């Protein structure tokens, strides 16, 4: 029996300043609209999450693709993961420097490789060999981020007190979809944390940490301070709660409580199960997200 499609996207969870609210809302709405169209044209959940993430990678508002935060050396290093809940096939890339849409490379790994995860130059070579165009790292760097890094490095030269404050941007993007065939999928893409050490990999592209999808439990995408999220394998933690019979909204809220209570982390999460039930939770002041179903279109940035 055909299922009614559902689409949920997020564009980061942090203290998004008032003057950036509109851009975030517009970005998540555009991503949801593009992915919804993909499903309307017969695309799968996997196609939809890829398209949603590409739209946000191309939008300089977010910490994904061009316009991402810079690492300590002033370079963009990107991580992304895509996962198919029907088959558990997954594709991930880490620390790529010459791919504007790392989720496209991740999708190629999922579909064309027996492997699951590629990093650095090997990932770029795989992507190029499979039709993903490479760019120069400079093409991904924008003046706003050069200034942000300069200001951050000047401020933290004397103190590292605020290195991981919730006010520090967490603009990672993610998408979850349920398609007509009842399959769910998830994708997450990020430039990681500002001023990160070269080679540092966060939670976003790691299976079960920043992203997860299994038709039998749920799809989840997280954003926030990556190290605590990784330690708890948080996306899988939430999916397991859904498998145990809990609603996605409960699982998302409990996961964020667990993140705070266990490791003093902060961030946000979206969760979707194969019945179309979804959840959104964050312990940051704001989180940008959008939802699309046949019956409604919703987007928000405040506490949910
Ligand atoms: N979770 C990401 C990371 O730590 C950052 C973010 O969500 O913005 O790499």
Brief summary of the model shown:
The chain has 304 residues and is an alpha+beta fold.
Biggest sheet layout = 8 strands, mixed
How far apart the termini lie comes to: 32 Å
Mean pLDDT reading:
95
Number of domains: 1
Features:
single chain; 304 residues; alpha+beta; Glutamine Phosphoribosylpyrophosphate, subunit 1, domain 1; 8-stranded mixed beta sheet; 4-stranded antiparallel beta sheet; 12 strands; 23% strand; globular; binds aspartic acid
Task: Write a structural description.
The two termini are 32 Å apart. A hairpin with a 5-residue loop joins strand 7 and strand 8 (219-224). Helix 1 (18-40) runs antiparallel to helix 2. The chain has 304 residues and is of the alpha+beta class. The protein has eight helices and twelve strands. The radius of gyration is 17 Å and the shape is globular. The strands form two sheets. The chain has an eight-stranded mixed β-sheet with strand order 4-3-2-6-5-1-11-12. Strands 7-8-9-10 form a four-stranded antiparallel β-sheet, with helices on one face. The longest helix has 23 residues, at 18-40. It has one domain (6-303): (Glycosyl)asparaginase (Glutamine Phosphoribosylpyrophosphate, subunit 1, domain 1, 4-Layer Sandwich), CATH 3.60.20. Aspartic acid is lined by residues 12, 63, 170-172, 190, 192-193, 202-204, 223-224, 226.
Task: Describe the protein's topology.
Layout: E1 6-14, H1 18-40, H2 45-58, E2 78-84, E3 90-96, H3 102-112, E4 117-119, H4 120-129, H5 143-156, E5 173-178, E6 184-190, E7 211-213, E8 219-224, H6 226-232, H7 234-243, H8 248-263, E9 267-272, E10 278-282, E11 286-293, E12 297-300
Parallel strand pairs: 3-4
Antiparallel strand pairs: 1-5, 1-11, 2-3, 2-6, 5-6, 7-8, 8-9, 9-10, 11-12
């Amino acid at each position: 029996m055909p299922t009614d499609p559902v689409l949920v996207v997020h564009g980061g969870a942090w203290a998004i300043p008032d003057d950036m609210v509109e851009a975030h809302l517009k970005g998540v709405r555009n991503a949801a609209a593009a992915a919804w169209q993909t499903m309307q044209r017969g695309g799968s959940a996997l196609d939809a999450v890829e398209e949603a993430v590409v739209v946000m990678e191309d939008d300089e508002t977010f910490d994904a693709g061009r316009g991402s935060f810079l690492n300590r050396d002033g370079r963009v290093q990107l991580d992304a993961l895509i996962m198919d809940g029907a088959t558990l096939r997954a594709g991930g890339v880490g620390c790529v420097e010459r791919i504007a849409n790392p989720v496209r490379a991740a999708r190629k790994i999922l579909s064309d490789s027996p492997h699951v995860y590629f990093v650095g130059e090997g990932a770029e070579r795989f992507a190029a060999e499979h039709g993903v165009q490479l760019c120069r790292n400079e093409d991904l760097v924008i003046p706003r981020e050069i200034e942000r890094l300069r200001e951050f490095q000047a401020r933290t030269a004397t103190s590292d007190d605020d290195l991981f404050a919730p006010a520090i941007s967490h603009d990672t993007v993610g998408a979850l979809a349920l398609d007509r065939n009842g399959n769910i999928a998830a994708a997450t893409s990020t430039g990681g944390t500002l001023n990160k050490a070269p080679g540092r990999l966060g939670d976003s592209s790691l299976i079960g940490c920043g992203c997860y999808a299994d038709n039998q439990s749920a799809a989840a995408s997280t954003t926030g301070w990556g190290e605590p999220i990784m330690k708890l394998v948080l996306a899988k933690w939430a999916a397991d709660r859904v498998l145990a019979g809990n609603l996605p909204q409960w699982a998302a809220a409990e996961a964020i409580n667990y993140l705070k209570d266990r490791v003093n982390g902060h961030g946000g999460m979206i969760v979707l199960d194969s019945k179309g039930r979804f959840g959104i939770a964050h312990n940051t002041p704001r989180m940008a997200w959008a939802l699309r179903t046949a019956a409604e279109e919703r987007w928000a940035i405040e506490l949910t």
